[in-house]
């Protein structure tokens, strides 16, 4: 790769922010009206029921107040009129890696996926602005009858599969932002795994935002049919812009009887992004759903992945890491709704607050009285990197009835000056020492991430720590 | 070797850890009050002194701990003033402290920590080779009779007092410093461990290493025989001598020295 090419891309490697020249074919303009919704629906060539779904959602969005009675007042700074709700470069989804645009490939490069791991990228789909650029999925996956496509395509080509579950796990009116997403969604993935099929390779998606004031509203729906298994991974890096950017996704998972779904997210948003995401799964009898979630960056992230344990012996898990640097607020947590006997749930949350960064854990665990043999385990650990850091824990655990149990542990620790001195005395710089301690703090969770993500995660933590010391 | 004590020549000056008229305060309390000491490369100097006399303070000040404020004097490493350097830069120049109370670092394995410390000494962009690293680490651990399980455990976390001290010497053996300050490395060691750790230190002893050994007990000095013994009281060296001085202290305690505390130090 010639240096001349590299120079054309404006990359500030110290901050992890980057951008490319914009080229948009379809643009809904700024602001949100019925016309905006119609425009999106028309460009996508959607069926009438989807258009109606969007319009109902818009009304619900308008009628719902901001959740500022419990959440950050910073939400009031989102100016909905200044946001562009739809933007696409008009490219048709591609079928081979060769067809993926060079600048999208450079995104992968920027993410630092090692050369030898690029073979994984054969099974990758990458979102270019709001329209996905799909590469060919491994032939084996297709042969197994797995459907892996964009949400637009999924609704158009496979309504008989997706319509049944679309908006059922997370109803439009669940919260203001799920309603917003339901009105203007574009992009995201639809996956259907037939009964008994175990998808060997993780399915991957990378998203990025590449237009000022452009909100990204992906909609992802994954259905794992009886006894099937699938792992999905998404990672995001966002370029830095002057004004706030809104990202508000909705992700619905359905694990039918005995199915297993793992959903892995590593996000590194730039410091101006509002990242307000609703993620929920339904786990049927003996099904397992595991959310592995890592949030780095953003101005405000609000995200509480949940599992509704609907069938007997279903299992739900949320493993999450949040890193809040100066001026950032990570408001994350988990929801476990036990709705059948002998269901179990596990929540492990680790947060790191640096400088004026703020981390909040909100948990909700509900086990009603009439159920028997339900178990929950919740652990949340916070690491503070200097005295200005702030961390709050709001665990709401309602366990009723006998024969159900819940265990809750929380800790707050600090990297002490003595620890840093000890490590520096061995030759590590202050940034390296911090980075090593932070990686140590999250190490047992990172081990659960797929290999290429744990490498990326370590790199992101290194970058953040470099930025956090003078 | 011993001539260096009286009139150090220019050569020796360049090849020594030299502390000149050092003053160190914690908060507004002066702890080190005009301390002068020179450890030529190749020699082992012991410091003995009552609790609270400032021995650990001296070691941390040399290492560059931010809470220990140097208000006067110099610390020269092979002739270069290191007081302006960050602790990590001092370490990379060849300074090593074995801590009286080694820190625990949760989640960071001993092996990864050592590897990171060694990589920090490599030229930019280069890393030490993994198999070579493990071979070297296992060899050193064998010498110190440390079980292999310690490589995967978090640095010092849950280690017994003696295990922590052994781990400090393992780090020293791996990092190969030019000057090492060992702060009460013998405390907390059982009789066998004292012998093993002393053997470990003696194995590192040689023309390329200067050692400052802080201890309360003559017993350690039976194993690691010092070239010079210094006595520190209230932030100053009040007496220096041969290894006999340690025996004398053991017999008579510090009081006999405190009596002549106003005498000029260093004969
Ligand atoms: N961080 C600190 N804040 C306040 N005072 C301190 C601090 N560290 C050391 N001191 C004080 O400085 C003096 C010297 O302490 P230092 O630890 O250097 O003594 P020492 O000679 O190593 O003693 P010991 O033999 O008990 O290890 C003591 O009075 C101690 O209380
Ligand atoms: Mg001490």
Uncertain segments of chain A: 1-22, 90-95, 113-138, 207-214, 237-243
For this structure, what is the CATH class of the domain at 16-101 and 163-260 in chain B?
Alpha Beta
The multimeric state of the shown protein is heterodimer
Give the class of chain A from helix and strand content and strand pairing: alpha/beta
- CATH architectural grouping of the domain at 16-101 and 163-260 in chain B: 3-Layer(aba) Sandwich
- Average of the residue pLDDT scores of chain A: 80
Structural class of chain B: alpha/beta
- How are helices and strands ordered from N to C of chain B? HEEEHEEHEEHHEHEHEHEEHH
- Please state roughly what percent of the residues of chain B sit in beta strands, choosing from under 5%, 5-15%, 15-25%, 25-35%, 35-45% or over 45%: 25-35%
CATH topology of the domain at 16-101 and 163-260 in chain B: Rossmann fold
Largest sheet of chain B: 6 strands, mixed
Number of helices of chain A: 11
Number of helices of chain B: 10
What is the share of helical residues of chain A? 10-25%
Distance between the termini of chain A: 33 Å
SS elements, strand count of chain B: 12
Largest binding interface between chains? A-B, 25 and 32 residues
Radius of gyration of chain A: 22 Å
Poorly predicted sequence stretches spanning 5 or more consecutive residues of chain B: 1-8, 263-267
Number of domains of chain A: 2
In short:
The complex is a heterodimer of chains A (470) and B (267). Chain A is built from eleven helices and 25 strands. Chain A has 470 residues and is α/β, with parallel strands linked by helices.
Tell me what you see in this structure.
The complex is a heterodimer of chains A (470) and B (267). Chain A has 470 residues and is an alpha/beta fold. Chain A is built from 11 helices and 25 strands. The radius of gyration of chain A is 22 Å and the shape is globular. Chain B is α/β, with parallel strands linked by helices and 267 residues long. Chain B has a domain of 184 residues: Rossmann fold. In chain B, α6 packs parallel to α7. Chain B starts with 9 loop residues before the first helix and ends in an 8-residue tail after the last helix. The relative contact order of chain B is 0.17. The N terminus and C terminus of chain B are likely disordered. Magnesium ion binds next to α2 of chain B.
């Amino acid at each position: 790769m010639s240096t001349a090419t590299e120079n054309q891309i404006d990359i500030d490697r110290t901050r992890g922010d980057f951008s490319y020249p914009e080229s948009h074919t379809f643009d809904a303009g700024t602001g949100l009206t019925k016309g905006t919704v119609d425009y999106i629906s028309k460009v996508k060539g959607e069926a009438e029921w989807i258009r109606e779904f969007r319009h109902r959602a818009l009304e619900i969005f308008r009628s719902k107040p901001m959740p500022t009675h419990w959440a950050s007042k910073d939400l009031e700074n989102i100016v909905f009129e200044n946001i562009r709700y739809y933007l696409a470069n008009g490219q048709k989804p591609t079928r081979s890696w060769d067809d993926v645009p060079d600048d999208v490939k450079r995104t992968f490069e920027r993410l630092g996926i090692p050369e030898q791991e690029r073979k994984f990228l054969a099974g990758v789909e990458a979102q270019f602005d709001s329209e996905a650029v799909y590469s060919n999925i491994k032939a084996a996956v297709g042969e197994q009858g797995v459907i892996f496509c964009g949400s637009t395509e999924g609704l158009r080509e496979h309504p008989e599969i997706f319509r049944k579950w679309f908006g059922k796990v997370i109803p439009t009116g669940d919260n203001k932002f799920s309603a917003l997403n339901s009105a203007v969604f574009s992009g995201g993935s639809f996956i259907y795994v037939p009964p008994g099929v175990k998808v060997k390779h993780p399915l991957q998606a990378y998203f990025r935002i590449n237009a000022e004031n452009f909100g990204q509203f992906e909609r992802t729906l994954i259905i794992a049919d009886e006894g099937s298994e699938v792992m999905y991974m998404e990672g995001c890096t966002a370029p830095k812009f002057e004004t706030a950017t809104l990202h508000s996704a909705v992700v619905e998972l359905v694990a039918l009887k005995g199915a297993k779904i793992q959903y892995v997210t590593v996000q590194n948003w730039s410091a101006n992004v509002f990242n307000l995401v609703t993620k929920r799964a339904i786990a049927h009898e003996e099904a397992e759903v595991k959310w592995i979630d890592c949030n780095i960056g953003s101005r405000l992230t609000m995200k509480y992945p949940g599992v509704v344990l609907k069938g007997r012996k279903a299992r739900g898990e949320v493993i999450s890491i949040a890193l809040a640097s100066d001026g950032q607020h990570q408001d994350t947590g988990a929801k476990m709704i036990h709705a059948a006997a002998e269901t179990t749930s596990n929540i492990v949350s680790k947060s790191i607050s640096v400088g004026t960064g703020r981390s909040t854990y909100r948990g909700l665990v509900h086990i009603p009285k009439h159920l028997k043999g339900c178990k929950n385990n919740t652990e949340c650990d916070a690491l503070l990197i200097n005295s200005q850091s702030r961390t709050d824990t709001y665990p709401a655990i309602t366990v009723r009835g006998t024969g159900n149990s819940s265990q809750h542990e929380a800790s707050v620790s600090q990297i002490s000056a003595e620890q840093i001195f000890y490590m520096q005395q061995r030759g590590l710089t202050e940034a390296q020492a911090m980075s090593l301690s932070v990686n140590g703090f999250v190490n047992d969770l990172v081990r659960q991430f797929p290999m290429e993500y744990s490498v990326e995660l370590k790199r992101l933590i290194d970058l953040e720590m470099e930025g956090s010391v003078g | 070797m011993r001539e260096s004590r009286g009139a150090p020549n220019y050569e020796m000056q360049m090849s020594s850890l030299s502390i000149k008229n050092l003053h160190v305060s914690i908060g507004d309390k002066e702890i080190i009050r005009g301390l002068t000491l020179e450890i030529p490369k190749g020699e082992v100097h012991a410091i003995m002194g009552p609790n609270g006399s400032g021995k650990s303070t001296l070691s941390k000040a040399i290492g560059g701990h931010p809470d220990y404020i140097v208000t006067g004097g110099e610390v020269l490493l092979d002739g270069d003033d290191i007081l302006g350097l960050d602790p990590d830069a001092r370490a990379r120049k060849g300074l090593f402290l074995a801590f009286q109370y080694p820190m625990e670092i949760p989640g960071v394995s001993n092996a990864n920590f050592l590897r990171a410390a060694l990589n920090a000494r490599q030229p930019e962009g280069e890393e030490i080779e993994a198999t070579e690293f493990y071979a070297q680490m296992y060899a050193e651990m064998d010498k110190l009779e440390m079980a292999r399980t310690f490589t995967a455990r978090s640095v010092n976390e849950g280690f017994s007092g003696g295990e922590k001290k052994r781990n400090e010497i393992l780090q020293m053996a791996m990092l190969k410093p030019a000057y090492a300050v060992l702060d009460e490395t013998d405390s907390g060691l059982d009789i066998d461990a004292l012998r093993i750790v002393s053997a470990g230190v003696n194995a590192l002893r040689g023309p390329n290493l200067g050692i400052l050994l802080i201890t309360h007990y003559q017993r350690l000095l039976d194993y690691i025989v010092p070239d010079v013994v210094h006595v520190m009281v209230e932030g100053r060296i009040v007496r220096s001598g041969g290894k006999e001085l340690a025996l004398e202290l053991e017999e008579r305690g510090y009081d006999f020295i405190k009596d002549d505390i106003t005498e000029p130090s260093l004969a």
